[in-house]
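As a warm-up, study this chain.
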Amino acid sequence: MHSEVKTTSLDPASLCRTDEEQENFLNAAWETGNPSVIANALSIIARARKGGVNELAKETDLARSTIYKALSKDGNPRLKSLLSLFRDIGIETSFSLRKS
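Now compare it with the structure written out below.
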């Protein structure tokens, strides 16, 4: 006899509730150097912080379609779009140079 297995969907945004969790998640994605992984992490953090792309589009000067495209697996956002997303999601950036 087979027993039925019930599953539920898990939204990764529910695992990134605190600023620290979001920061760690984004840093880990950034360290991969993989644009798709980074875009996915930004999308997840946008959902966690703003509730989703619709809400983010209301707060930014970017169109919903631009945000979806920028954060898609194959997205290649312009620097202007990324800077706007960072600002509106609440992401601060800093840079350091590798020691040669």
